[in-house]
Structure formats: structure tokens, C-alpha cells
Amino acid sequence: MITQSKIINFESSVFHVQRSDKSDDEYEDAYSISDDNLIFALADGTSDSIYQKELATMLVSEFVSNPICLDGMKDKFVKWLEPIQKRWQELIDWEKLPYYKEAKAKIGAFSTLLAVRVTTHQTRSIVCLATTTHQTRSIVCLAVGDTCMFVVSKDGFVSFPVSSTADFNNNPYLLGSYSKYNIQLKQHIQTTRVAVDDGDLIVMATDAFSNWFLTELQKGEKPWTRFENLDQGGFNGLIQSLRNSKDIRDDDTTAIFIAVRT
Questions:
Q1: Nearest Cα residue to 46 out of 35, 36, 59
Q2: Which of 25, 34, 78, 253 has its CB surrounded by the most CB atoms within 10 Å?
Q3: Closest by alpha carbon to 150, among 56, 262, 258?
């Protein structure tokens, strides 16, 4: 009996560019990807808070190095978040903090978080004495805020957690660096599971890119094709062109493209 297997892999590429009035080291998004390309995290630190890049970096790094089950995990997520909040508070040297930063530090930092894990199920079928093992892949996603994920397939697209451009606003719920902000957190954690297959494309992006990408999708366009075969320089140029034409908001912009392949 011959055994054949169909293995699904995930190939990722990341592009990012800071807001046009910022320098490279003022870029405040953060992302992390596991070595096996099965865990992804993206966060957007809000520019009106303090040490927001540090919070965003802690969130994505911790999720990839210490992931939690995303199914039915809202209570666990609050507990998972608390050590990160503690570490953020410990990085502040309160005695040397200038007075004009102290007030902001007491309010804390804020960030979105989009976390994605790939799950695998194997099925077997026998045809003409040949056993074929097929991997069925799904992605389980958690989101707090308006950093979004899109799954584009031959059957259409999925947009999560924002499903309409009208839902983008300047006041999304955010993760805070103090546990006092956890009181209503469970109400704002959103999760979903999406089956994926060969040829699908997963896009994770911060809000400015997500708003533009969803606008194009809802018009029936194929915006992902504009980024095929681009390097970082090409990405920067395309985003700047979209900013010049007012098609995309001028903000820190990060996009992770994940191709599903066999």
C-alpha cells in the first residue's frame, strides 16, 4: 500500500513603514513570528501614550514565545496579560522620569493585539490501495482593537475583527499597561476560527492598511496583487503613493502576508 501525504505550509513576509513625519526609530508597531511560521502576532501601540512601543513589543513577543489556547480563553487571557503589565511598569525608572512624562506614565500605555495560531487536523483516505494523508488547517485568531486579519480565497474573503470600513474609528478598545484596565477587557476580546487551504492568502495589518485593504475588497478589487514581488523599498514607495493620493491614512503601517502552500 502506497502512502502519500499532502502537507500545507505557511510562507510569510513582513513589510512596515513609519508615519511620514517620524524617523525609523519612532516606528511604534510591533510584530513577531514563530520559527515554524505557525504563530503570528501584530500590535499597534498608540502614539498618544507613553512607552507604547515597549508594550506592543512585549505583547507580540510573549504571545509567540508563550502562546495560549485561543478557544474559549477569555479568562486565561486576562491572567496571561498581567505579567506583561507588571514588566512594563518595572521598566520605568520613576525616580529619573521627567515630570512631564510622569503624568502620562501613570495613565499608562495602550496597544492593539492581533494573535493568530495555526491548528492542524489530519484526515486519511484510501483510493486504489493508496493511503493519502491530508492536513486540514485552520487559523484561530484573537483580536483586541482594530488591527485586522483578512483571509482571501477562491470563495471570497473573511475580514476580522472589523467587517466594514464604517467600523473603523479613532477610539478602538485597547489593551492597557495597568490591570485596572482589565475590568471590561473580556467584553472586548474577539475570537474566530477560519479554515484555510492551498492557495489562500492571509493578511495581518495595522489599522491604516486594514482600512484601505478592506475598502478595496468591498469594491471588488484585488489589493493584494499590488504587493506581489515587492521588496521593502517597493512597499515604502507604494504606501507613500497611497498617502499622497489620500487613499490611505498617514500612520505607522505594518502588513504581514502569509501564503498558504502545499
A1: 59
A2: 253
A3: 258
Instruction: Note whether 8 and 38 are within 8 A (CB).
Output: no
Q: Where do the structural domains in the chain lie, given as residue ranges?
A: 2-227+235-241+252-261
Instruction: State how far Cα 163 lies from the chain centre.
Output: 15
**Mean pLDDT, to the nearest integer, of 125-137?**
57
CA distance 171 to 71: 26
**Domain 2-227+235-241+252-261 superfamily per CATH:** PPM-type phosphatase domain (3.60.40.10)
Helix (H, G, I), strand (E, B) or coil at 216: helix
Q: Give the model's pLDDT for residue 153.
A: 94
* Closest by CA position to 119, among listed 141, 150, 144: 141
Residue 54: all three cell numbers together: 515597549
Q: What is the DSSP string of 225-240?
A: GGGTT--HHHHHHHHH
Which H or E run includes 3?
strand 2-6
pLDDT digits (tens, 9 = 90+) for 72-112: 677 788 999 999 999 999 999 988 888 888 988 999 999 99
E strand map for 69-215: 110-111, 113-127, 130-144, 148-153, 156-160, 175-176, 190-196, 201-205
Mean pLDDT across the chain, nearest whole number?
89
